[in-house]
Amino acid sequence: MDPIRFSAEVDARPWAALTHAYGSAADVPDCLRALAGEDDEKAAEALSELYGSILHQGSVYEATAHAVPFLARTAAAGIRAADVLAFLGGIAESGDGVGDGDEAAARRAVTAELPLLLASVEAEDSDVRQAAAWAAAMTGAADEAYGTLRDRFAVETDPQVRAELLGGLVHLDPARAAALATAATGPGEPAEVRVAALTGCVDAGADWGPGHHDAMLALLPADPLVTGRVDLDRSEPLQYVVSSLLLRNTPADREGAYALLAAALRTGRPEVLAEAAWASESAVQISRSARERLAGPLCDAILRDPEITETVLPLLRLLGGHAAQAGPVLAEMAARDDDRADQALAALVDVDPVLAVPLLARDLARRPRALDAACGGAFGTPRVPCDADLLAAVRARLAEPGALGGQEPYRFAALLESWGSEAASALPDVLAALGTFPQQMTRALAVVRTPEDRAAAGEALRGEARSGRREGRLGAAAALYELTDEAEPLLTVLAERLEDGDPHGRREAASLAAGLGPRAAVLLPALSAAVSDPAADRTTPELDADIAVAEALWRIAGRAEEAVDLLRGPLSGAGPSWMRWTVSRAARVAAQLGDAGRPLTEALLRLLPEPVQTPVAVLALCAVAPETLDGPVTAGLLLDSAEQDADPFTALEALIGLGPAAMTGGHRRRLTELAERDLRVTASRVEGTTASADERFQERAREVLRALREPGEEA
Questions:
Q1: 90 contacts: CB under 8 Å, gap ≥ 6
Q2: pLDDT digits (tens, 9 = 90+) for 580-619
Q3: Region 198-207: what's the mean pLDDT?
Q4: pLDDT tens digits, residue range 622-632?
Q5: Is the separation of the CB atoms in 430 and 465 below 8 Å?
Q6: What pLDDT does residue 686 have?
Q7: Which residues of 332-347 are buried (b: 16+ CB within 10 A; e: fewer)?
Q8: Burial readout 582-607 (b: 16 or more C-beta within 10 A, e: otherwise)
Q9: Between vectors from CA 591 to CA 588 and to CA 597, what angle results, nearest 5°?
């Protein structure tokens, strides 16, 4: 490759006018030159920068397709060919080549380089052959690439390259490659190829039988066998196979998945158990029956060999009460004086809270993980009963506020609040800690009391609201209002917050003011003044604050015109994904306006086709302009949203709003499927919350089915 000509042709492209992840692509030419240059350190840095700019987290941009020919020329010249070919494969993987967008253009640009990619599968260097095989498969060009990859597979001897070729063939044409993958599961192939064959069988839709089961077990632990593969989606084969089988959602595939996990959990081999535990955690996130099906095999393994317990602690936490049989083993671990005790106690809280409470009370200061579990984690609610010894331990910690660290003040406040008047004896300790931890203790102070303590609690909150530390005044004033209905301190603090430049503070203040209704009329001038400049490029927090102001103006004084003007911006068009909740909040406020929100009808109708916005748009339109909705069509859109886990809870709420007349027999069957199938509907991706969220969805879906019964239909 002539570097002078290469550089000139790179410079001939209008890079400054093109864009990538960080704006102008003017920096791409230097990266392309460095990648093709002789300095290995600069080339590695250039490739890293290109991954960050033109293939940012798997996304491609306008400049990406323009860079592809130069990347291909670099690889064709044998310059860092394996790395560059893998990069081209990543670009091809990002889209399907259909349409006029950046993804389609990038895929087409790589597909245009297929002659290079297919020629490279014959390269002398095995790393180059492997990267080329993967990149060629990612183009999706089955007609052009399948035969060449199949021919190479017939003669390839390197296990990793052979595995990559097989994976590529399945990707290009699953039906045609199914027999090839099945044949490659046998003992005549290297272990790396057999693993690729097993995942390939799943991808190709082949029935999972005893032969697959035995082969997968024989290959465990399988994770090390895929080290070095370009295709990272299958880097954890057992987890991939189990998840894929469960997602098929058939009884036979579920049995296959759970038989495989049960056998892996019972092997007694620590390295296999680690893979099986992770695959089981994934199963719990996917399947409603997983916790019940996995608890028996796991508890059997633990009782047979208690030493494995530490490896499976995260899984035990997910199984919760289903794994109560392992409670005594966890209790023994939790009673020790070592680093594992806190983790074991945290698991015991989830598995058997009653058994955990005495151990938590005994050493509360040294059990932060267990305390967090007792409070339900960052997004949950406390789950342990009010026990005398545990309450005494909490009080002892509160008596030394200077010794509290981390999340302890929040956790103690959450526990006390959940216990309510049962924890009334802690009132003096809460009062003593109020000055040090006003934000945390105000809510607890409002509920941890007997009727006789009402006056003392009110006086403490009143003092904190008027002259306490700034960060705790709002919480104290709100708690005082809830306790005594005394609004003056709260109104004073809200007025101060509305004048604050922080949009988060303005939003919180406006929301609280809305809850006061007409009693907050004195705040109307401050609310109007708190609106951000509509001509500016408003941030999401500023838009959220404006939405809260709109709600306050409506609920305090019925000022619909101002509220509508404030809501137009967030509802005006589709924004980036992180705007979805801002749009949702605006739509919910629009719903409160009823007929007064009619000017927002067109904006709300534009939200209907987008699954993440369909439910809130329907709720708003039911209130604002119900005549614009076709009941059965809208019900179908809502079920689409729920099935895609876009906003399933709001979808159920909106179905109730539409009423029984909108539900056809097909709609009822779809909702019944969501309520009763084995696959979970919700997948929040927050560790430990998916199962509980899905169980709430399932219960609510059943309630909605009952509420939307056809006239005369039996309950």
A1: 51, 55, 58, 138
A2: 889 999 999 999 999 999 999 999 999 999 999 999 999 9
A3: 95
A4: 999 999 999 99
A5: no
A6: 42
A7: ebbeeeeeebbbbbbb
A8: bbbbbbbbbbbbeebbbbbbebbeeb
A9: 125
DSSP run (H or E) holding 615: helix 614-624
- C-beta neighbour count of 43 within 10 angstroms: 21
Nearest one of 599, 554, 587 to 654, comparing CA atoms: 587
Distance, in Å, from the CA atom of 233 to the CA atom of 306, rounded to the nearest integer, reads 33
Alpha helices per DSSP H over 488-539: 488-498, 503-516, 524-529
Beta bridge partner(s), residue 19: 24
User: Could you give the angle at the alpha carbon of 642 between the alpha carbons of 102 and 249, nearest 5°?
Assistant: 90
List alpha helices for 173-312, DSSP H: 174-183, 191-203, 210-219, 237-248, 251-265, 270-286, 290-304
Strand ranges inside 393-519, DSSP E: none
CA torsion through residues 466, 468, 473, 477, sign: negative
Alpha helices in 77-219 (DSSP H): 81-93, 102-111, 114-120, 126-138, 142-155, 159-172, 174-183, 191-203, 210-219
CA 310-312-313 angle, to 5 degrees, is: 70
Residue 577 to residue 7: CA distance in whole angstroms: 38
Nearest in space to 284 (alpha carbons), one of 310, 322, 311: 322
Single-letter amino acid, residue 621: L
**Residue 713 confidence (pLDDT) above 70:** no
Nearest alpha carbon to residue 547 among 517, 574, 508:
508
Can you give the pTM of this predicted structure? 0.86
Report d(CA 402, CA 373) in Å as an integer: 23
CB 616 within 8 A of CB 587: yes
